[in-house]
Amino acid sequence: MNRRLFLKLSATALIEVVGCQNRDRHTISSPYDITVTSDMKAGHQLLWPTPLTKGEQLNTEYIIVGSGLAGLSAAERLADRDFILCELSAGLGGSSSHASYAGESFSQGAHYDLAYPANYGRETLALLEKLGIVAYDPIQNCWNFVDKQYLIRESKAEQIRTETGFQSEILTPGPLKTAFLELVLPYQGQMKMPTWLIDRELHWLDQITFRQFLARSLDLTPDFERVIDYQMRDDYGASANQVSALAGIHYYTCRPYYTESVELFSPPEGNYYFVKKLVSRLNPQRLKTQHLVKRIERDRYGFQVEVIDLSKKALNTYRAKFIVFAGQKHSLQYIFEPDQHLFSHNAYAPWLVMNLVLSDRLNADGFWQNEILEETNKVAKKTFMGFVDNATQVRHNPDYRILTAYYCFIPDQRQILADIETHAESIVERTVTQISNYFNRDISPLIERVFLKLMGHAMPIPKVNYLFDDQNQYRSEPGLVYAGVDNSRLPLLFEAMDSGIQAVKLLDQI
Ligand SMILES: Cc1cc2nc3c(=O)[nH]c(=O)nc-3n(C[C@H](O)[C@H](O)[C@H](O)COP(=O)(O)OP(=O)(O)OC[C@H]3O[C@@H](n4cnc5c(N)ncnc54)[C@H](O)[C@@H]3O)c2cc1C
Asked: By the 8 A CB rule, do 320 and 61 touch?
């Protein structure tokens, strides 16, 4: 009996949750060993508190909430000062985190970035240079990556599967593509990062949807819209009908993709590479994982902060003069109610990342990004975004091949993640079937281990009127500032890092 059939027959009878080493990580025993990582249960302690013992009390100057790239960039700026960073997860990095197996490290979220044009924000470029990540290239007039071994070769960068077979370009050449490029390319050079650097004259593009913008000048076809929607969901978590024209144009023109060759950088552990670089500059004792910030209150000293130490089941009380809040803002209603209204219009796309660890007898040529744009994908409510194949990346253990699949859900489907947390088999099976069809062979006998990362509030959707309105300007307490891509920024690495830098600068002005 093949493994897939066995899986179908055994259904839920085999489900067993074993060995809870970390609160946010458990293993489901099934024909595949599936390790699920999710912060949902930990986060829900904000809603339904559990009994806690009295924990430590201490004073510090700064508390940083969240260890995504925003929180860690803020920490890097505060490296020589007295700070504590609290992260609810067992690992650092937030949506740029990773997992490891048999000496191989792989991404569980953000997984790449591209060379940075010289007109991008100076402070973030300086930080990336200080971390030894980029160096200025005067010939190309841009900031290229230092670790060249992690660049993805252009010929191996992408393959797309549609109903009619494989293709190498996602936007098929033809008159509509030409007209589309004629429409967006004039914006090349003006779509900077961080986005607050973009000229005011272009801000109107944030007030209409990308689809409205395109439909005004182009005769859109269903096929063309399908591709554009796919690309918007891939980077912004929602279709062209929802994201702003500015976000859409930014996607195609923030770098000179169509006129020059742009370095594509994807280390095996994805953007956790950037996390590691930041962490290497910080005192590890200041970084507290499994620490959930539960409540912030103003007091005479500055702020009193209740923090749950999830590993000890203890309630710590910290006092701090300043706070950088770099966690997702939807939880402010429980943590710091006075400012919750500032972010009440944010919408977040839930994401699921699945790493399939294969013993490498998959004798197929690899492409880095494998997009699946088939009609049959509609069965999965258009949520399956394809997979990344580490055969094109630097590998430490050649015995293993890791395929990392991505699912993007709509906000209303968040509950699906809660179900997947305990019943992961069916989505794993569905993914294995999709990827087997892609390779035209059953990959299920090669699967040794499966890792799943569930992120309920993974990606803020850059809807109409979302950008250019930094909520720090309306904050109720000067000493409590906001960082993170969900504060009026595109959900991208450079924006996240810049938000951490700008947050500390705001505090320094007090
Ligand atoms: C699946 C996926 C793929 C992506 N791919 C890319 C990519 O390839 N390139 C790219 O540039 N961008 C990508 N992104 C966007 C990515 O989110 C940003 O680049 C960036 O990592 C966001 O960082 P952040 O610090 O703003 O937020 P996050 O990474 O979300 O960090 C927030 C952190 O705060 C913690 N936290 C929240 N509340 C609390 C609390 N109360 N107490 C303690 N801790 C708390 C969370 O656990 C989390 O670790 C991707 C996003 C997703 C979801």
From this structure: yes
The domains of the chain are located at 3-41+347-460, 43-108+269-346+469-508
Residue 370, amino acid? N
Taking only the tens place, the pLDDT of each residue in 282-332 is 999 999 999 999 999 999 989 999 999 999 999 999 999 999 999 999 999
Segment (H or E) for 428: helix 425-439
Alpha carbon of 489 to ligand 1 centroid (Å) = 12
The pTM score is: 0.94
The residue to mutate among 96, 279, 310, having the most atoms of ligand 1 within 8 angstroms of its beta carbon, is 96
| Local structure of residue 153 (DSSP, 8 states) | P
Backbone angles phi, psi at 413, to 5 degrees: -95, 15
Separation between Cα atoms, residue 331 and residue 507, nearest integer Å: 22
> What does the alpha-carbon distance between residue 166 and residue 364 come to, in Å, rounded to a whole number?
14
Ligand 1 mean position to 328 CA, how many Å?
8
Which helix H or strand E contains 175, and what residues bound it? helix 175-184
- Taking the centre of ligand 1 as the mean of its atom positions, its distance from the CA of residue 271, in whole angstroms, is 10
Q: How far is it, in rounded angstroms, from Cα 453 to Cα 355?
A: 9
* Domain spanning 43-108+269-346+469-508, CATH architecture: 3-Layer(bba) Sandwich (3.50)
Range of weakest confidence among 158-172, 302-316, 477-491: 158-172
Helix (H) or strand (E) holding 450: strand 447-460
**CA 397 from centre of chain:** 25
Which residue has a Cα nearest atom 38 of ligand 1?
Answer: 327
CB 179 within 8 A of CB 221: no
Out of 40, 85, 95, 409, mutate this one to test ligand 1's pocket (max ligand atoms within 8 Å of CB): namely: 95
pLDDT confidence of residue 435? 94
Is 83 within 8 Å of 64 (Cβ atoms)?
Answer: yes
Query: Is the model's pLDDT at 186 over the cut of 90?
Result: yes
- Write the residue with the smallest CA distance to atom 50 of ligand 1: 110
pLDDT tens-place string over residues 194-213: 999 999 999 999 999 999 99
Rounded Cα gap, residues 166 and 180, in angstroms: 22
| 487 alpha carbon – ligand 1 mean position (Å) | 12
CATH number of this structure's domain 3-41+347-460:
3.90.660
Q: Tell me, using a 6 A CB cutoff, whether residue 87 lines ligand 1.
A: yes
| Nearest one of 357, 350, 418 to 389, comparing CA atoms | 357
Q: Is the CB of 73 under 6 A from ligand 1?
A: no
Distance 482 CA to ligand 1 centre (A): 14
